[in-house]
Every structure is written in C-alpha cells, then in structure tokens.
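Deliverable D2.4 — example input (structure tokens):
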C-alpha cells in the first residue's frame, strides 16, 4: 500500500460546492462529496523508502512507513522522528514487512507480514516515539496489507492484498 518510492504523493481536501474537483466515485454513492487535489509533494531523501503506508492524526502530522521503517513528518514532509528498524528482531523475529498503517488515539496500528505470508499479525507502535509497544496479535488471513479502525466502535478492519472477497 501507500506511495511508491520516487513517485509524487497526492493530498486532497474534502470540499463541497462548485469547486473544480476529482471524484473517485462515479456512482455518486459518496453523498455528493468531492475531493479537490490541493497539492503534491515529492518524496525525497529518506522518505523515498516510505512506500508502504501513510496516515494522519488530522492535526498536522503524517506518519509514513517503509518495509521496516517509520517516519513522522509535518504536512510539508519535514521529518520529525525516524525509526529505521521499526520491527524489533528480538520481539518480532519472523516479521520483515510493515503494511499500510492507521493512526488511532496516539498509536500506530500496523499490519505485519513475514516472507511466506502465512502468519500475518497486527502490531502497535507509539506514534510519538515510533517505538514498538510490545503489543501484537496474529490475524487469520494470508496477506495482511492494510487496515482501518472505526473510531465509533473501535473495530479494526483488515483485508487481503488481492482477490478480496470479505473484510476480517
């Protein structure tokens, strides 16, 4: 998931009314909401390895993930915190790959995968320090590439990478 290394990242702001806009939902099921392309930023330097995921807290912070790295930036992609080895080998010895994460209540919830894609898990990192909290749980699927959290119910939804038939 996420932004491919060396490619531009696109950010949009949810807008209504008669603005020039791009809509990814041609069926109109989005309730008339339209996304306006607001700006693009090139990923440079260390951020070029952040090709797995991106999330925000909604207050001006972004978190980006690479296969084994986490970054906290401001909205201009100025790096504020880096964890270049986010998956601690002593605590998560089988895992080598962070998926597309979600920020929720000061934590980063990150799908984890290992080379055979047979024992995926969900891990939790502190969003301020980018350190692993020690909390993780195996999930019953093959390829744990992304997740979302419903804040009203605190239910975590995950799905496979391809051939998606249902949510976990």
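Example output (designed residues):
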């Amino acid at each position: 998931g996420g932004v491919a290394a060396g490619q531009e990242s696109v950010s949009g702001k949810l807008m209504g009314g008669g603005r020039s806009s791009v809509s990814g939902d041609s069926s109109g099921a989005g309730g008339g909401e339209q996304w306006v392309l607001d700006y693009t930023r090139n990923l440079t330097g260390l951020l070029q390895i952040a090709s797995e995921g991106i999330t925000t807290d909604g207050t001006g912070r972004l978190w980006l993930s690479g296969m084994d790295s986490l970054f906290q930036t401001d909205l201009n992609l100025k790096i504020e915190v880096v964890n270049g080895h986010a998956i601690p080998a002593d605590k998560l010895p089988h895992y080598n790959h962070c998926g597309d994460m979600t920020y929720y209540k000061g934590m980063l919830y990150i799908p984890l995968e290992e080379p055979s894609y047979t024992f995926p898990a969900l891990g939790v990192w502190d969003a301020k320090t980018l350190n692993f909290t020690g909390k993780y749980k195996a999930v019953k699927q093959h390829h744990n590439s992304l997740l979302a959290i419903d804040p009203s119910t605190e239910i975590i939804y995950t799905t496979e990478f391809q051939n998606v038939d249902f949510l976990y």
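The first strand starts at residue 8 and ends at 15.
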